Each structure stands twice: as C-alpha cells, then as structure tokens.
C-alpha cells in the first residue's frame, strides 16, 4: 500500500512540479541532507507520452553521483550497447541512405572523457527512478496554484488536483519546476522571450508486432525517414514491439495515425496506436530566473526543440546548480548572496542550448528528402551520395555534441577563479574507479594534500565550517572542486578560494 505524504505547515524548500527536473532538485537537496517537498498533480507516471528519450552522459554522471546511474541502466529497455547509430532511410523497410555512428555519447563506456556514457531511456522511467529516490518528499495529487514572497520566506498555495479546499505551506525557498505554463514564473514577474516554430509535428506511440524482424538496416537509436511524401523520425521504446515516431509537418486535424506509421514503415504493417501528441517546437528563455527566494528551473525557465536530446538534461544541470547552493545556504556554510549566481551561471547555458537545438532543427527530414530517393535503383544510386553528404554535413553536430554536453563552463562567474569554471576533467584511476567517485557531496580538494596551499585550504574550510573532502592524489594537479563537479579554483589558488567560491 502506498503511503500518503502528509501536507506540512512549513518546509525549508518547496518544489513546484515533479517532472524529472523537480525530482532531480529534490534528490540533490536530499543528497546534502536538506528537507524538501515536491508538489506534483500527477499521481502516477504515464508511459504513453515518453517525450525525452536521451539521458546525456553528463546527466548520467550526476545520476552516478546520487547512486542512481546503475539503477537506470538496469531498468532501461534499450541497453546502451544495443546501438549507437542513427540511420537515414527511405522508409523503415526501404533503402539506407546514410548512417551516423557514436551518437549521444553512447560510445563513452570506459572512456576517460566521462564517468558514464549516455543512456537511451524514456522519460517516464527516469521519473520513476527519481520518484523512488525522493520517497516521502513527493506529494502527488496537488498543484501549486499561487505564492507570495516576503522577506522571511514564501507562502505557497496548493490545491487538490480534482478540486477541493486550498491549503497554504510556508517555505524558506521555492524552486519552480512547473513547466511552460509556470505559476512560479508568473509569480515573480518573469516572462518568456523567444519564438515558436511554425511547423507542426505529430508524435505517435504505437505497437507494431514483427516490424523489427522485417527491417533490413539493423539496430539504431533513430531512424530518419527521408520520404518527401511522409518525412519523419522513428525509434524503438523497447526491444519488443513498442515504438515512437515524430511525423514532421503534420497537423493534428489532418492526422491519420495508422496511415502515418504505415507511410513511415513503407508497408501496411500491423499497427496499434497507443497515444498521440501534437506539438510545435519553442525556443524560449525566461528573462529572469529568480527573485530573492523563488527560482525557476527546467521548462519553467527555458524551452528548446528536442533535436539533440538536450531538453530535460539542461534542466538536470539547473537542478544540481540551485540544489547545492540552496543546501549551502540552508546548512549555514554559505551566505544567501551565493543564490544570485544561479541565474548568472545557468541562464547562459540555456541560451547556448536553445541556439544549438534551433540549428539542429534547421535541417530536418523534410529538408533532406529528395524525391529521387524514391525512384528506381538507378535513380536512387545517382542521388544518394549527395543526400548522404548533406546528412553528414547538417546532422553531425546534433548527434555529436559533447562540447555542449560535457564542455559547458561557468567561466566568468563571480564564484570561480579566473582560470576555472569548467567541469573537472575526468579520468579512470583504475578499472571501474572513477576520479569522480573520490569527490565528496560538498567541496573536494583533489591533489597532493600535503602541499602548503592544500593545507591552507583545509584550514580555511575548518574556519568557515565548509564540508571539504580531501582526495589525496599526488599525481593530480591541486584543484578545488565544487559540489557540482565544476572547478572552483586550481593552484596557484587565489587568496581564500573558499571565500570566493561561496560568495563570502
């Protein structure tokens, strides 16, 4: 029997919205021993609208930090070893035009570049794993409907999803992870800036028994169908018979889901439609991320097209950034001024991500589909090299984006040293022994701990009451690492590096 989470009168942090970003924020706070409450209207996770399917290598590193990466991999329907390729075809049962390998960081197992490779996993599975980790901090069946902020905290109004009496909860801080129609964004007077793409899209989740066995192309994480009559994108949700597809350029009022799937397959295959979801891509960024006590994360703060798989992964980065900073303030080892760096660090990352995803969206299956591909064998072979070249030229960055996924930096932030801010360079110390596994939940000093500079940092941590783990690795450059695995400073350190890193 599922235990019902009681509604408290007060909580240190209230999180509006229990999608993957809200749940990740809660997991991060609990990682630091901070109590929180996630308010989420959905009682259960729906598998019929999987939305995001790619958990990036960076998000998997953060899941590893929480002890959840292996759990997600064990339960993912598609093993990371199953495929790392994207195939471009005339139809699922037709001819192959081109293929791209090493997609989405799925090839990084054992690489020094990352502690974890990417993982293909439907968003509902990610949410379920995070829900289990959050436990009784998740309040379902309720929705945040308003809030008012004062000097000492935030009064949050919550209402039962099916209707009923409104309740009030007092919180010291609120994190708004309540999506595009965010109540928290409206409450702090923030608004989206950006645009909406004009082209319609139509998502379908379907079951097609025996389709996989008929396909001549082999496994792929994406199949791009370059048929001018029905261009689109198809992938598997499991290794049984469940699939997803995006029919590009299709309006809901014109959609015949069975016919769309059969057009993409290239034959009148057996189809059972499980769910449909019309949508248009948005490139939107909140003009401000925060007030004094309310912070926006995930879709409440930014939206980008799905091409490249950056959506909720960017939100997980938000969750960790605001989560550790709130914990530092609430646990008494950082001043409230540290929280102002959340927006200055994360908003530029979201802007870069929106720009990259929009570039990926500039060339989709309709733009790559040449009518000659659908001709006889001679006509196909005549045009295929040119189309394949266009595929590789325009889509490479969509599938190979580790510079964005692993390489984003907080350089220039007021709480990192001038030569710092990037994610700590990863390496394996021994098989299965990641440098990241030596890092603590708060700050970590990596390198020769007997050096005078290292001794001084340890003394500074004791004086400030800052949790500091020492990873004594004499062959590693002396480095001060933040809770989010980004470099705060490297030797020679500036004066009082922890004072700098915590906005003292």
From TrEMBL:
<dbReference type="InterPro" id="IPR050641">
    <property type="entry name" value="RIFMO-like"/>
</dbReference>
<dbReference type="GO" id="GO:0016709">
    <property type="term" value="F:oxidoreductase activity, acting on paired donors, with incorporation or reduction of molecular oxygen, NAD(P)H as one donor, and incorporation of one atom of oxygen"/>
</dbReference>
<protein>
    <submittedName>
        <fullName>2-polyprenyl-6-methoxyphenol hydroxylase</fullName>
    </submittedName>
</protein>
<dbReference type="InterPro" id="IPR002938">
    <property type="entry name" value="FAD-bd"/>
</dbReference>
<keyword id="KW-0274">FAD</keyword>
<dbReference type="Pfam" id="PF01494">
    <property type="entry name" value="FAD_binding_3"/>
</dbReference>
<feature type="domain" description="FAD-binding">
    <location>
        <begin position="11"/>
        <end position="356"/>
    </location>
</feature>
<dbReference type="InterPro" id="IPR036188">
    <property type="entry name" value="FAD/NAD-bd_sf"/>
</dbReference>
<dbReference type="GO" id="GO:0071949">
    <property type="term" value="F:FAD binding"/>
</dbReference>
<keyword id="KW-0285">Flavoprotein</keyword>
